[in-house]
Amino acid sequence: IDTQKLPHERLSNREHQVMLMLAGGKSVSDIAEELFRSVKTTRTYRTRIMAKMCLKKNAELTLYAVHNKLIN
Which are the contacts of 54, defined by CB distance < 8 A and separation ≥ 6? Predict the structure, then answer.
């Protein structure tokens, strides 16, 4: 793991995309539909994102995204 990078910089492009959508308040099922993925696949992305970023709740993800100016 590259400790010089911020947690969100360690995500894959798809994980980053899903992270921004989750942080913006979209549900897993909404994201799945928008990205033409299954809910199960999208849930797996969310699980990986939360693990990589050491977060437990979507609210923490939103707070992180706001603090790091990833969303308004």
Answer: 7
Taking alpha carbons only, the member of 31, 7, 9, 5 closest to residue 18 is 31
Residues for the chain: how many in total?
72
CA atoms of 43 and 47, how far apart (whole Å): 6
Read off the pLDDT of residues 9-54 as tens digits, 9 standing for 90 and up: 999 999 999 999 999 999 999 999 999 999 999 999 999 999 999 9
pLDDT surpasses 90 at 1: no
The CA distances from residue 62 to 10, 58, 65, in Å, are 17, 6, 5
Is residue 50 within 8 Å of 41, Cβ to Cβ? no
Neighbours of 22 (CB within 10 A): 22
